Every structure is written in C-alpha cells, then in structure tokens.
Amino acid sequence: MTEPKPQRGKCPICDRAADAKYRPFCSRRCADVDLARWLSGAYAIPDTESEDGDEGSEGVVRSTGPDNGSPGTTH
Q1: Where are the domains of the chain?
Q2: pTM as predicted
C-alpha cells in the first residue's frame, strides 16, 4: 500500500499552488505582499474588550501614538 502524496496547499494571496521554498506562498512576490499587509496594519485581530473595559484586556498593550497625553509630554 502506498502513502498518498501530500497535497500542496494553495497560496493565500493568489490561490496558486504553494512552492516549498516560499511555503505557504507560491513565490517571493506573494510572500512580500503578505508582509506588506502585516506591516501596514491591514491584518488585525478584533478587540474583544467588554464595555466595562476589564475583560479581554489582559496582557494587551495599546499605544495611541506619540501624542498620547502621557505625563512628561508637552503640547
């Protein structure tokens, strides 16, 4: 009995067959497109914080930018 060949996955960017060298992508181009999406913030994990602000916020660090009104900053 022979083992079935593992099926190659599809590239999550363009749906072509994934290349082992760039897995799970088909090419360096698609890998770079995915990286650019991560760096630009296009991919995000939804916030599950409740209205009281306590649940789901354990270990989450939020940054509001350089002008966040922190002590020691001048406006």
Answers
A1: 7-42
A2: 0.51
